Amino acid sequence: MLKNIGSIEDKEKEEIIVKIIKKFNEKYPTIKGEAYIGYPIYIDEYTDNKISVDLAIISKIGVFIFNILTKSVTDYTKIQDDIYVKVENRFRKQPFLMRKRKLVFDMIIITYSKEIMTRYEENLLAFTVNDILNFIEENKQENEFSDELYNNILSGLQEAYGINQRIERDGVEKGTKAYLINEMNQLVEKYDTKQMEAILSDTKGIQRIRGMAGSGKTIVLARKAVELHMAHRDWIIVVTYSTRALRNQLVNLISKFYATKNDGAKYDKNKIKIMQAWGSATAPGVYYEICLRHGITPLNYNQARVKYNNMAFSKACLEVIKEVKEFQKMYDCILIDEAQDFDKNFMNLCLNVLGEDKRLVYAYDELQKLNEETMPLPKEIFGQDISNDTPLTVCYRNQANTIVTAHAIGMGLYRKKDGLIQIPGSSDVWETIGYTSDKKIVEGESIELYRTKETSPELLKCNPEEIIDFHKYDDFYSQAESLLQMIKENIGKDQLIPSDIMIIDMDTIGVSDNKNKVTTLLKKDEYKDIAIHLAGTVSPEDFFRKDSIVYSTIFRAKGNEAYMVYIINAQRCANSLEPRSDRNALFTAITRSKGWVRVLGYGEEMQVLCDEFNEIKTHNFKLYFEHYPTKEEQKQLILNNQDLDEGAMSSLNNTRNLINKLKADGKVTDIQIIKELFGISSKDEIIKLLENGDEKNG
User: Fold this and answer.
1) Structural contact between residues 266 and 258, judged by C-beta atoms closer than 8 angstroms
2) pTM metric for this prediction
3) CA–CA gap between residue 40 and residue 19 (Å, rounded)
4) Bridge partners of residue 615, in order along the sequence
5) What count of other Cβ atoms lies within 10 Å of the Cβ of residue 474?
6) C-alpha closest to that of 403 among 622, 180, 193, 184
7) Phi, psi of 125 (to 5 degrees)
8) Which residues of the chain have pLDDT under 70?
9) Which positions ≥6 away from 356 have C-beta within 8 Å?
10) CA distance 601 to 479
């Protein structure tokens, strides 16, 4: 059965395509395949004219390319040959589809005409859908394509090869982590069906693209911008975002995708405009351009903060919406990445400058925080429901065991004493991010959620039990020593390079001091091959380096990923004063890994996390709810696990900084501080305080 992907504006052609696909499925109901409608599109390098494939069927029994003519033409063979050459050239550029200068499969191209014309033997011409079925039957494969060849052909048509950056590690030994990374990098990339649907779906109206981190949303958005530009050369397309660090990634992706489709050519920056949402006098931005076009003086960040205090950007956008009586059309399509960083005011401001067709595409991370959905429903944002909604259910970054562990730890699912800390507000989100179950989720009843190879493909061919582990130590220094021992093994035995490794310190306040304590140990001769740097030392973009391992807070680690991730001081997230925020932070830290994760910490609080991880392993890396919380119980979870308010946390952090300074100056000891803060005068009272744990002292 063919999966239909894409669309075509010509209604006559669409009607014929629907009939072709229907007849194909009736004749070959068990044959696996994908039908690409209105794709691929190429640009003639000499005339700049668009060359479009009306229908491409990639199936297990053959590759069939269709050109549909609704009117009579002088020479159908020239049109057919032009399309054939373009498609074949793209396939021939993929080394995995070639053998001895020839494609490893036959490509059949068929022209369908509503008008009767003279047939030429070498150029297949059909006048009915039955003619097409006969041509397919005569030219289909005797034996079905293997899964590998079928997927490789799909990759070739999608021009997906090379999506991921490849760093080949030369001379590595078989079985090492470096060898396994090389193997993973040699896999031929392919967009999954949902990703291609998101890329090729009609953008008339509002389109939502959502999925968990690692599902490829930014890649999909960048590729969609290129496909829209190929199909509509006169359109002005905007790609916008909040985090400035995203700009380089978007520019690189769009440049790469456009160059791949156009023999190395550069995209027109006047037609695809990549700009930050806010903008300034020196850097274009969506808000800034809209203000100038409509005669409004735009506010910069500082001005907006002074005027509005909190939610400055949102309120600045709302002011423009209220002030402009009639918006002008400025762009043909706006694509918003990381839409979870915006509220409805910016989204609606964008919608207002898109003319009648309102082509707005927004992509966001689903379940970025485990206690809430990332975005309101479309009706809450735009005042209307939408029909174009694509959830990306496959996660390509994290291994299955990593994802499940991150969610279980983030929720506190297997906490022995106090149970759940938080849970998504809607149970529907689990399916959206790639979980499945053997029965429907019913509040108040038990349920087991798990991931399959379809939504968590095993790209890293290693023992799943080695992917993630938790380690408890007696104190910070034994933790640091073990960290360096493991890194030493990574660089030596595992043959990893420094940029493969990331250290994330969950102690955000003490990160600089902690890093210095770790690097002090590097003076030992056994660690002479290890160099560590603090993220952001040289510039905000300073993260990975070729000759040094990055040491980062969770805030700087967001948006970055590494094959080997070490999380230290994880005990701070077990039973903290900010239970939801700290568990969310640990969830985010774990999901930075595209290979292995080691979670390190010390003391009894770390034992809490180790116990939870042991329960995860006992449940075979599945999310088991003995009693899925009801709506009332979910409300109680929120009340029982409130983070300490911002003011109180700020005061505590200031106190901690002062204490650290006093200790560094050698003016006080830990015992003196405890006695002074808690009014304790004896050793016995200190022991009693520790034994009471979190009990309140009057």
Assistant:
1) yes
2) 0.86
3) 20
4) none
5) 10
6) 622
7) -130, 125
8) 371-374, 642-653, 656, 663, 674-683, 686, 689-698
9) none
10) 7
Q: How far apart are CA 430 and CA 684, in angstroms?
A: 50
Contact 92, 84 (CB under 8 A): no
SS3 629: coil
CA distance 299 to 651: 32
Radius of gyration of the chain, Cα coordinates, nearest whole angstrom: 29
Among residues 484, 489, 521, the alpha carbon closest in space to that of 503 is found at 484
Cβ-contact 25, 57 below 8 angstroms: no
Return the H-helix or E-strand segment holding 600: strand 593-602
User: What are the tokens at 155?
Assistant: 């990759």
Burial track 8-36 (b if 16+ CB lie within 10 A, e otherwise): beeeebbebbeebbeebbeebeebbbbbb
| Ordered DSSP codes for 323-367 | H-SSPPP--SEEEESSGGG--HHHHHHHHHTSTTT--EEEEEETT
534-593 tens-digit pLDDT? 998 887 778 999 999 999 999 889 878 999 999 999 999 998 888 888 999 999 999 999
pLDDT of residue 644: 57
Tokens found for residue 627: 């009693």
> What DSSP string describes 92-146?
HT-GGGEETTEESS-EEEEEEESS----BTTBEEESSHHHHHHHHHHHS-SSPPP
Question: Measuring CA to CA, which residue among 246, 312, 314, 241 is closest to residue 279?
Answer: 241
Q: Which residue has the tokens 């005061």?
A: 651
Residues of the chain with pLDDT > 70: what percent? 94
Between the CA of residue 578 and those of 40, 644, 646, what are the distances in Å?
50, 6, 10
Q: 230, 430 in Cβ contact below 8 A?
A: no
Number of alpha carbons in the 13 Å side-chain half-sphere of residue 126: 20
- β-pairing verdict for 447-451 and 468-473: unpaired
Residue 697 is predicted with a pLDDT of 35
Assigned CATH class of 2-158? alpha beta
pLDDT at position 538, please? 83
Q: Give CA–CA dist 393/435, Å, rounded.
A: 8
CA max distance for the chain: 105
- The superfamily CATH assigns to domain 193-391 is P-loop containing nucleotide triphosphate hydrolases (3.40.50.300)
**What ranges in 369-441 are assigned the alpha helix state H?**
378-382, 400-411, 429-432
Q: How many helices (H) and strands (E) does the chain have?
A: 24, 25
Cβ pair 245, 466 in contact under 8 A: no
The dihedral of CA 308, 312, 314, 317: what is its sign?
positive
Cβ contacts of residue 9 below 8 Å, gap of 6+? 38
- Identify the pLDDT of residue 574: 93
Q: Which pLDDT does position 698 carry in this prediction?
A: 36
> Would you say 194 and 391 are in contact if contact means Cβ atoms under 8 Å apart?
yes
All CATH 3.40.50.300 domain ranges of the chain, comma separated, are 193-391, 400-457+464-639
Second-level CATH architecture of 400-457+464-639:
3-Layer(aba) Sandwich (3.40)
The dihedrals phi and psi of 43, each to the nearest 5 degrees, come to -115, 130
**In whole angstroms, what is the distance from residue 504 CA to residue 516 CA?**
14
Q: Give pLDDT, residue 675.
A: 67
Where do you find CATH 3.40.1350 in the chain?
Answer: 2-158
Roughly what angle, to the nearest 10 degrees, separates helices 604-618 and 400-411?
A: 130
Q: Tell me the three-class secondary structure of 195-235, residue by residue.
A: HHHHHHCCCCCEEEEEECCCCCHHHHHHHHHHHHHHHCCCC
The owner of tokens 């506010």 is 299
Residue 473 to residues 573, 574, 604: CA-CA distances in angstroms? Answer: 15, 15, 9
